[in-house]
Structure formats: structure tokens, C-alpha cells
Amino acid sequence: MFSCRYIRHLKHSYLLLLSGAIVSFFGSMMNWLDEITLPTKLAFVEDILLSIGLILSATGLLLLFRHQVVQHSLLKKIAATDPLTGALNRRAFKAPKEHKHSERTVFALVDVDHFKRINDTFGHDAGDFVLVELAKLISSHIREEDQFFRWGGEEFLLEFRQAELAQASKRMESLRQLVESSHFNLNGQAIKITVSAGLAAVSPGHGGLEKALKAADEALYRAKGNGRNRIEMAA
Rounded CA gap, 104 and 145, in Å? Predict the structure, then answer.
């Protein structure tokens, strides 16, 4: 009964468990009195109280369990989500566990061009705003089976599943053009950005995931070195 105070914030569960504990306590007290007084007079009442206490406590425990399940799911989602953009974060990134030999996955590492210049010109709030809007564009442009992650700073990682490198390159080029033609309006100011990207495919028996991510990073570096606002594919 005294432990109920630790869940006062749960209201319904707290009231049910507390009520169940109190009713069960009185039922137990009556059972004790029943042993030292007249056995037959209190038996019916104590049985009713103990039954009610058990039902209230069981209902409270059920609500508490449901709350814990919801909270656990929410905490997992928070831990896997970037708080600024709402995209998945690095912690949520998991390597594809199973790939048939005929399947391929392509990763695109995307970077906002001259992001520091945006912060210096418009302020850090503008930089955050651009990242949020870019995440929205990416989310609306990729397929349902694809995923994207905020990889760090102004970088995003796109995962094109069951796609050949040429197909993923076309999708990435379409996204690059969409970003280039978009205007991000912040407090009446139009902010234009471009992105660079490096693409690499991962397939069984060819170096695996780590090699593909490294190759995508190297391709992104080449895209920046070749003038930015472009896509480079890993050799």
C-alpha cells in the first residue's frame, strides 16, 4: 500500500491500486477479528472486501502494465529519432540482415552545400530550419520501403532498398533537382540550398556494409571537390 505513492502521476492506476490495497487491508483486519470473535458474523463481509480489493488491484496492475508497454515503445522511438528533424538517427541504423544474392541495397550520403555559410548569413536558427525542411523533402520523395537517417550535422544517409545503383542514382538526381528548385522561406527570407551526394551499393560477398558506407563517403568527397551540387557514384 505504501509503495503506491511512487505512481501517483499515473492517476487511474494509482487510485485503483491504492483502493485495492486499502480494501484488502480492511478485509484482512476483519479476517483477523473473525478469528478472535464470533467466526460466522464477519466471514461474508471479509470475503466481499477481499474480492473487491483483489479486483481493484488486478485492474490497477493491468493499467500499470499497459502504461509501461506504451512508455517503453515511446522511449525506443525517442532514442531512435533525431529531435530536430524527426528523421531516424544513427542509433536507429541497422544493417540489412538478410539479402538474397539477386538483391542490392544502395546508400546515398547527402550533404548540404556550404552549410556554414547559411549559418553565418542567416543565423543558426536558419540552419536548423533548412535541415528540418530538407528532411521533409527527403521523406516525401523516397519510397515507402526506403529509409533515411540524419547521419550527423548537415549529413543525411539514404537507404535505397532492392535497387540497382543506376536506379538509385536517378532517384537521387531527382531529389537533388527538387532541392535545388525549392525555396525555403523563413520569416520572409527565401533561402536556397543545394546538396551533394555520394552513392555506393552493398551486396553479399563484396565487402559488406562498412565498405559501402566508406565508398559512399569517398564519393561524396569527390562530389564536393568537383564543384558541389552534384552526385558521384562509387567506383
Answer: 13
Which CATH number is 90-233's, of 3.30.70.270, 3.40.50.1100, 3.40.50.300, 3.20.20.70?
3.30.70.270
Consecutive sets of 10 residues in the chain, 235 residues long: mean pLDDT of each?
52 65 68 58 65 73 71 73 92 62 78 94 93 95 93 94 91 96 90 96 72 93 96 90
* Segment holding 55, helix H or strand E: helix 39-79
Specify the pLDDT at position 35: 58
Q: State the distance between the two ends of the chain, measured CA to CA, in whole angstroms.
A: 68
Beta strands 147-152 and 155-161 are: antiparallel
Q: Where does residue 207 fall: left (phi above 0), alpha (psi -120 to 50 degrees), or beta otherwise? A: left
Could you state, in order of their start, the residue ranges of all structural domains in the chain? Answer: 2-79, 90-233
Q: Report the C-alpha gap between 90 and 177 in whole angstroms.
A: 26
Burial class of residue 148, CB neighbours in 10 A (0-12, 13-18, 19+): buried
Active-site positions read 154
Quote the pLDDT of residue 80.
83
Burial class (CB in 10 A: 0-12, 13-18, 19+), 76: exposed
* Number of DSSP helices (H) and strands (E) in the chain, helices first: 6, 7
